[in-house]
C-alpha cells in the first residue's frame, strides 16, 4: 500500500469518525447515556485506526513509497 493509499484510508476513517461524533452528540443531547457510551468506545477505536493509518502514510512517504 502506498502513502497515497494510506492517506485515502485515513480520509475514510476521518469521515467515519465525524459521523460517529455527530451521532454521539445527538445521543448525548437526547440523554441516551448507554448508547452514547457505546458510541464513545467506537469513536476511540476509529481514532486509534486513524492514527495508525497516518503513521503508516508518514512512514511510507518518508521511505519514498
> Number of helical runs?
2
Shape, principal axes of CA atoms: elongated
Task: Describe the sheet with the most strands.
Answer: none
Specify Rg, calculated over alpha carbons: 15 Å
- Stretches where pLDDT is under 50 for at least 5 consecutive residues are none
Structural class: mainly alpha
How much of the sequence lies in strands comes to: under 5%
The percentage helix is: over 70%
Q: Give the count of structural domains.
A: 1
Describe this structure in words.
There is one protein chain. Helix content is 91%, strand content 0%. It is mainly alpha-helical and 65 residues long. The chain has one domain. The longest helix is centred in the last third of the chain and has 31 residues, at 33-63. The N and C termini lie close together (8 Å). The mean pLDDT is 92.
Give a quick precis of the structure.
This protein has 65 residues and is mainly alpha-helical. The chain is 91% helix and 0% strand. It has one domain (3-60).
Features of the shown structure:
elongated, mainly alpha, 65 residues, 2 helices
Which SSEs are present, and which pair or pack?
Elements: H1 3-30, H2 33-63
Helix pairs in contact: 1-2
